[in-house]
Each structure stands twice: as C-alpha cells, then as structure tokens.
Amino acid sequence: MNRISIFLFLFCACILNVYAQNKKTPATGKAEPSYLKTASGLEYKIIKEGPGNQRPEQGGYISFWFQLQTLQDSIIDSQFGDPNPVGIPTQEALHKPGIEEGFLLLTEGDSAVFLLNADSLYINSFHQKRPDYLKPQSKVKMIVKMGTVYSKQFVDSVMAQQKIAMAEQSKGETDVYTKDSIAIQNYLKQNHLSGVATPGGAYVVILEKSTFSKADLKAGEDVQTTYIGSLLSNGSVFDKSAPGDYFKFRLGSGQVIQGWDQGFLKLKHGDKALILIPSRLAYGTRGAGGSIPPNAPLVFEVQVK
C-alpha cells in the first residue's frame, strides 16, 4: 500500500470516528430537555409526563409533592418523603412569573422543575420572609410532582353535597331542639314548677334556697355538689353521687357537660335545685354508655355545698 492510500485510510477512519461520537446520546438514551419560558418569563422544564390530560383550573383543587433546591442542588425543603401530598385550591395566578402559574402547566402525574425568584416565592406564595441564607433576588429550583387534579365541577359538586348534608344536620338539630324544649316545658307544667332559663335553653328550678349565701356561683369557682341524674322522659336514674360524698369540679372550665356549666351559674352555695338540660347541652347525638340514649334531655337534682 503506497503512502497516499495509507493517508486516505486514516483520514476516513478519523471522519467516521468523529461522526460516531457526534451521534452518541446520554446514558438515558434521550437528550436532556432544555428550559422553556412562558410569556411572563417563568422558566420550567417537564422532566416526566404523567397519564393525566386535565390541567388545573381556577376553582378546582390539586394535590402535589415538591422539593425546593438552590441552583447548586442543595435541598432547602423537601416533601417527597411524605406519603400525604400538599393539597390546595387552584387559584388565579396573580403574581407572574410564579409557581401558581407553573401549576397550571401540569396535568396529573407530571413532574417538572421551575426556576423561581426566591423573594417572590417566599413573599407571594409562602407568605413569609425570604431566609437570610438565600441572597436577595436569587433563584431557586422547585421540583413539583403533580398528584390529583380535581376540576371545578367536581369541587362544586362536593361542596353542594356537603351543603345538603349540613342543611339536613341543621334541620335534625332544630327538630331535636324543638322536641327537647317541648319536653322540658311539659315537665315543668306537669310538676307545677317554675324555672329560670340559661342562655342555652337549660332550666333551673330552685327547690330549697340557701340560708347563708346571697351571691351566685361564678365561672372559675371550685364547686362541690351532690347529684342524682335521671332521664327526663321516664325518670330512670342513670347516675348519682355516693351518700355523703360530693362531686367536685371547676365551674365554666368544660370539666362537666354544658348544662351543668350553665345551670350552676344560677345557683348559690347551699341551694338545692333541679337542672333540666336539653340533649344538645348534655350528651347530644352520641348518648352515654347504655344508660343515656342519643338525643336524651336530662334532669339533675343537685345540692350545692
């Protein structure tokens, strides 16, 4: 082989080698996508496309995971390890460029990275001061993995169902309130009693007035009393203090049922009284054990020490 042939052979080999190198791709087999930019200037990059096709809309709701990093990939905050995603209503992107605008670019299952102004992110999105370790007007990376995207129509339907349920609950409570009020008034009438009403609808009937105290009990005061508790409907006794023993509690602190906290404010040390309590100020819809059924108005005979 002469020198010209050798030269041509080596030249072709070099050309082929350069061509082969230029055709190589990263280890993933796909070229790394570059950052895109919205009209407002938000820089973002979709790193994984999910199966969803519905984008977030104003009035809807989204769930997502996120990780916040410096441009050098130091982690500032990460929620990726939490099994429960962040959930927020989808709102109008008022501050652009911003992460709220970025959410609107994603569908269910998408993952993306956003380049964000740290000052804008913390003030407008996190509603707090930018950490001192981040320089003013510096950029951070926020990686977002979109969870579920709920449409406005879906959210509206859920809220409508909740409104109906609350209305039914309110009607049920009103019906019970009316029933309890009638039962208490009938009890007073049948037993020829006159009572004083509390703000919540309990009634206090003085059986024996105190012979030594003129001042009503006050909230925060420690009270000692004997008691007999029975169902207003049939007089069945469900609880009572032991003979010679006093039940102790702090008035108005929530240690006892609301009917007691309200009723004892109408009493003095030494008073003996009946406290007639509607179910909503007693044990409500849950009742208590097997002795107090749900929605049961109660009557307590008490003697304050």
UniProtKB/TrEMBL annotation:
It holds the Pfam family FKBP_C. Keywords: Isomerase, Rotamase, Signal. Belongs to the FKBP-type PPIase family. The keyword Signal applies. This is Peptidyl-prolyl cis-trans isomerase. It is an enzyme of class 5 (isomerase). GO terms for cellular component: chromatin. It catalyses: [protein]-peptidylproline (omega=180) = [protein]-peptidylproline (omega=0). One of its GO terms (molecular function) is peptidyl-prolyl cis-trans isomerase activity. Residues 1-20 form the signal peptide. Its EC number is 5.2.1.8. It comes from Cytophaga hutchinsonii (strain ATCC 33406 / DSM 1761 / CIP 103989 / NBRC 15051 / NCIMB 9469 / D465). PANTHER family: 39 KDA FK506-BINDING NUCLEAR PROTEIN (PTHR43811:SF19), FKBP-TYPE PEPTIDYL-PROLYL CIS-TRANS ISOMERASE FKPA (PTHR43811). The lineage of its organism: Bacteria, Pseudomonadati, Bacteroidota, Cytophagia, Cytophagales. InterPro entries: PPIase_dom_sf, PPIase_FKBP_dom.
